[in-house]
Automatic annotation (TrEMBL), chain A:
Keywords: Signal, Transport. One of its GO terms (molecular function) is peptide transmembrane transporter activity. It holds the Pfam family SBP_bac_5. One of its GO terms (cellular component) is outer membrane-bounded periplasmic space. The keyword Oxidoreductase does not apply. Belongs to the bacterial solute-binding protein 5 family. This is Twin-arginine translocation signal domain-containing protein. InterPro entries: Peptide/Ni-bd, SBP_5, SBP_5_dom, TAT_signal, TAT_signal_bac_arc. It comes from the Bacteria. Residues 96-444 form the Solute-binding protein family domain. It is found in: Periplasm. GO terms for biological process: peptide transport. The keyword Transport applies.
UniProtKB/TrEMBL annotation, chain B:
One of its GO terms (cellular component) is plasma membrane. It comes from Paracoccus aestuariivivens. It is found in: Cell membrane. The keyword Membrane applies. Keywords: Cell membrane, Membrane, Transmembrane, Transmembrane helix, Transport. The lineage of its organism: Bacteria, Pseudomonadati, Pseudomonadota, Alphaproteobacteria, Rhodobacterales. Pfam families: BPD_transp_1, BPD_transp_1_N. The chain crosses the membrane at residues 9-30, 99-119, 131-158, 178-197, 239-261, 281-307. This is ABC transporter permease subunit. Belongs to the binding-protein-dependent transport system permease family.
Length: 530, 315
């Protein structure tokens, strides 16, 4: 994932159905203007959807944006993907998947061969009927040496795709993967007609037909009159306005020029909640901040010093002061509480300077001085968060020197640079435990920011990926979380909620653990009142 | 006169050339790289290299600079690094939007500022004069972005009178655009007028004390006539210079105003491209801004000559 906002992929994090029910009262839907609006909105939420109106959203974007599923980037690329296109599968709020353009799927024993049955009678915006060739073309665009697609690594395990008949495809993998269908829920895996390449006028099967596209300025859609999905795509028109200035974004919502705004800064939430009519939606998900301790070079090759760093962090303070409660405590491993494979037996690591000192002494040291690289390229206020870490760690004998690196070049030159002992990162979370662990924690992972290597972990990761027996998989993922928690090179301060804000007319809102604006599917799920 | 003109023109060309070199090589020095930023998860060394090659970045910097200059002479601004599209057409719409905004702001700001400065000079040392001086002091010290946010908070958020976002599109008529343009124009007028007001006032006052002004007054001419027919033409030279220089400032100040109001002009395009490290677009925008600045400066010099007989006949 990360590297700025480039390859944000919805379909991550977690929130089980039960988790959703019990937490929605607390952090699900917080409404502006105090109690008076609550009953009205609550009633409206239960109403049946109405058709019509124009939904306007403020979206982060740039002149470099494109509708090409392989090269799309920024919030604009992701939100537009789920507005114009459909995917083979749809990620649900409980972290399971349901059919979208694929009606059903099945793994052959061993999980290296998968058969997908495609939905029949689905029409593209240009009138073409969906068949196996379209799906094969859409997947193949991310494969091969020459591919520059953001989903290239995700598709790298595929060795062959072929059509069994007009609506059935067979996918062959180089190694077993029990989670393969999840890979097809991401924004890059949008399905377009075979050989289609005119990305200024994209054609999909989604709920809306794009009618105009000015990169870096705005895009508009009208409802797809032939949309196959029942009970979705309620508004007549959708408009994305590219708004990048943080104050201008909030002002546009306040002045009623837009109806929806994602990526709300936690610092602005209290302000927004005080504005009559504004609806703030918090979604607990898999987005977490990380401090990577370099396990290959420098002091953190000693596991005792890694432990000292983990005990020297006051997580609660960061949750209270910086996130203002809009999140959850991290526990030095990547899975959020709501992930199906989350291991609840690992106790929450407390802030304990005495323990930090204890591990420092165990490593034969009385004090430790270390440079912590932070940058605005990671998350807002990362330098201030680093200072909070430094303040608390001092009591444990650790002197953190917080370095604020420029956002330009941070991902290229500082992060993942083996000469830096400690760097700051941010991860959006992924639909499956396997994805985030393969990307960041495996010893050969492309973004192994802590340079951590653990043979037992690597072995478990491969076995768990191919295991179709859920109970066995669970045991493996539990052990892997323990390994990361105890030995790993990551300090995880907090999980940060995805925070969205909507204008007074928007209905049908619900939290989604996968990403901002209902996992990027807000355009086809919400409707407008009056 | 002609000799002076030619000298000035030659200096202008040299300045543009210098600006292009600074822009180009400053772009080279930027940390990070568009390719690794764009490829993100796929930023393997080979992929980055392939993308850099496809944009011609494997050539040495000097070669690329000369090729860029050569293209510029033929009116070719090159291609964007990130999306590979031609920069020329991309900038064309953005430039016309920017000129619309800047033109409207100038159309309001210049008469407003010169008028207010003249009135302040005529009623020198009255409460009106002091008020104008104080307000111009305040606005000169107020950065554009601050005033823009104030205007948004008041007119858009509080009163719901005007939109806070000024996204204009090509299918809009001018009448559709007007409400969207009011707040950006207001911001620009307020923040560029102050200098012009103060200088108009000061220049007028300096000629007011001259003997011919006294003679005109003794002849019994009304004050407005003295100001309009005798004083303003003589004070025009410094005023014209400061007006033109402020127009140059106005165009550069647009970058911030456009970014805040999401107005799709050159400034916003430039900010956008900086964040994506799309260096070729940044260079093209920067060069257009530099040329505008240099040309307006030349015009200011020429106006100073044309309006001042002593300079006009000297050569």
């Amino acid at each position: 994932m990360n590297k700025g906002k480039i390859t944000v992929m919805p379909g991550s994090g977690a929130m089980s159905r039960r988790g959703f029910m019990s937490t929605s009262a607390a952090l699900g839907l917080a409404l502006g203007a105090g109690g008076s609006l609550l009953p009205r909105t609550a009633r409206a939420q239960s109403q049946t959807p109405v058709k019509g109106g124009k939904l306007r959203a403020g979206i982060l974007g740039a002149t470099s944006n494109t509708n090409d599923p392989a090269l799309r980037q920024d919030e604009f690329g992701v939100m537009a993907a789920y507005t114009t296109f459909n995917h083979l599968v749809e990620l649900k709020a409980d972290k399971t998947i349901e059919p979208e353009l694929a009606e059903s799927w099945e793994a052959k024993p061993g999980a290296t061969e998968w058969v997908f049955n495609l939905r029949k009678g689905v029409e593209f915006h240009n009138g073409k009927t969906l068949d196996a060739n379209d799906v094969i073309y859409s997947i193949n665009r991310h494969r091969g040496e020459a591919s520059q697609s953001g989903a290239k690594s995700l598709m790298a395990g595929i060795t062959d795709i072929k059509a069994l008949d007009s609506h059935q495809i067979l996918i062959t993998l180089d190694s077993p993967n029990a989670d393969l269908p999840f890979n097809f829920s991401g924004d890059h895996l949008a399905i377009s007609p075979a050989e289609y390449e005119d990305w200024m006028k994209p054609v999909g099967t989604g709920g809306y037909v794009q009618t105009s596209f000015e990169p870096g300025v705005r895009a508009t859609w009208t409802r797809n009159p032939n949309y196959w999905k029942e009970g979705r795509a309620h508004v007549d028109e959708v408009e994305f306005l590219v708004l990048n200035d943080p104050q201008a974004r909030l002002a546009a919502l306040q002045s009623g020029q837009i109806d929806a705004l994602g990526l709300v800064d936690p610092g602005a939430v209290d302000l927004l909640r005080g504005i009559p009519g504004v609806q703030v939606v918090n979604s607990a998900g898999g987005q977490f901040w990380s401090y990577a301790l370099n396990c290959k070079k420098g002091p953190f090759t000693d596991p005792n010093l890694r432990m000292a760093m983990k005990y020297g962090l006051d997580r609660q303070k960061i949750l209270d002061l910086v996130l203002r409660g809009n999140g959850a405590l991290g526990n030095d491993q990547p899975l959020p509480k709501t992930d199906p494979f989350f291991n609840p037996e690992i106790a929450q690591r407390p802030y304990d300077p005495d323990q930090a000192l204890h591990y420092l002494r165990k490593a034969g040291m009385e004090s430790l001085s270390i440079k912590l690289d932070t940058s605005d390229a990671t998350f807002a206020n990362s330098a201030n968060v680093g200072q909070i870490y430094a303040q608390g760690a001092k009591k444990g004998g650790i002197n953190l020197e917080v370095v604020r690196q420029p956002a330009d070049g941070y991902w290229d030159q500082v992060w993942l640079n083996v000469d830096h002992p400690m760097t700051t990162g941010v991860w959006m979370g992924r639909p499956t435990a396997d994805m985030i662990m393969s990307m960041v924690y495996a010893s050969k992972a492309p973004w192994n920011e802590a340079f951590w290597g653990n043979a037992r972990f690597d072995e478990l990761l491969i076995s768990a990926r191919g295991e179709l027996d859920q109970a066995k998989r669970k045991a493996m993922y539990w052990e892997m979380q323990s390994l990361i928690h105890e030995d790993g090179g990551h300090v995880v301060p907090v999980f940060a909620d995805f925070i969205d804000a909507y204008g007074p007319r928007v209905r049908g809102l619900e939290p989604s653990p996968s990403w901002y604006l209902m996992g990027a599917r807000f355009t086809e799920r919400v409707w407008l009142d009056g | 006169m002609t000799k002076y003109l030619l000298k000035r023109l030659f200096a202008g060309v040299l300045l543009v050339l210098g600006a292009s070199a600074i822009l180009f090589f400053a772009g080279e020095l930027l940390p990070g790289d568009f390719a690794s930023r764009m490829l993100g998860s796929q930023a393997t060394p080979e992929a980055v290299e392939a993308l850099r090659q496809s944009r011609g970045l494997d050539q040495p910097a000097l070669t690329r600079y000369l090729m860029w200059l050569g293209g510029l002479l033929q009116g070719d601004l090159g291609v964007s690094l990130t999306n590979g599209r031609e920069i020329g057409p991309l900038i064309a719409t953005r430039l016309s939007n920017t000129l619309t905004l800047a033109g409207l702001a100038a159309l309001v700001a210049v008469p407003f500022a010169v008028g207010l400065g003249t009135l302040a000079a005529m009623y020198r040392n009255t409460w009106f004069d002091r008020l104008v001086l104080m307000l111009s002091m305040v606005t000169v010290a107020t950065p554009e972005f601050f005033f823009a946010y104030l205007a948004i908070a008041f007119f858009a958020v509080q009163l719901h009178l005007l939109p806070s976002i000024s996204i204009v599109t090509s299918d809009m008529s001018f009448a559709d655009k007007v409400p969207l343009l009011i707040l950006p124009v207001l911001t620009l007028v307020v923040t560029t007028s102050a200098h012009m007001i103060r200088l108009t006032r000061a220049s007028l006052i300096s000629v007011m004390d001259s003997e011919y002004a006294g003679t005109a007054m003794l002849k019994g001419l009304p004050q407005w006539k003295i100001v309009l027919r005798h004083l303003l033409p003589n004070a025009m030279s410094p005023i014209a210079a400061v007006v033109v220089l402020n127009l140059a400032d106005l165009i550069v100040g647009l970058i911030i105003v456009e970014a805040i109001f999401a107005y799709p002009g050159m400034g916003q395009l430039m900010v956008d491209s900086v964040s994506k490290q799309d260096v070729t677009v940044v260079q093209a925008c920067g060069l257009i801004f530099a040329v505008t600045y240099i040309v307006l400066n030349m015009i200011a010099d020429l106006l100073a000559i044309l309006l001042n007989p002593r300079l006009r006949y000297k050569s």
